[in-house]
Amino acid sequence: MKETEIIYGRNALSEALKSGLALDTLYVQSGLKGLEWAVFAAREKGAVVKNVSSQKLDSLTDNARHGGVAATVCAMPYAELDELLDLAAEKSQSPFFIMADEIEDPHNLGAIIRTAEAAGAHGVIIPKRRSAQLSGTVANTSAGALSWIKVCRVTNLVDTIKELKKHNIWIYGADIQGQPYRQTDFSGGVCLIIGSEGKGLGRLVRENCDIIVSIDMHGKINSLNASVSAGILMYEVVRQKL
Description:
Elements: E1 5-8, H1 10-19, E2 23-29, H2 36-44, E3 48-52, H3 54-60, E4 69-73, H4 81-90, E5 96-100, H5 106-118, E6 123-127, H6 136-141, E7 151-154, H7 157-166, E8 169-180, E9 189-194, H8 203-207, E10 211-214, H9 226-241
Parallel strand pairs: 2-3, 5-6, 5-9, 6-7, 8-9, 8-10
Antiparallel strand pairs: 1-4, 2-4
């Protein structure tokens, strides 16, 4: 699989949309008329729409004739949140989700997805914006796990957190300023949130967590790679659920 699959040109895009191909992001040349149909169709399918310059489109398409429009294709289709909840119910298990709060490195996201699948999580939740999406790099880094675990893409993480709480799922945020993870009860429904590589948890996301957990550090540095932190915490959840 290529790192990023690009389609461009109005005819190619129209046929892709008719075929049901899952689009990740639609790039539309700013100020160009006659592309309203593409924007409407892409948004209806849940794709991110970005207005960009002609130069940006030239760069994306290697200076091909793009007609003012291009799109990246999802490596795998996204799931709905209800699908993740239904999967846990079908297995008669307490829900176990991983939420990635603006993880921008596709290698980190792929590694988190790989570990989540190995740990038996029922799904991974990512935001539409300011986050790596399901590209070829993510798929390759996941080492095939993307074919076996559902990934849900949502517009607003805080709204999603509030929805999960309605299903008696506890929200655990990973942060250096929190209670020790080994002293935390993960026995019920769990949504574990991993913050971005540089900033950690967003303010509103953090404020809506039920519990903040931390991993003790014994060296000179004070943080771990996001995917490593995710792996440690996921397997503590697994240990307590066995």
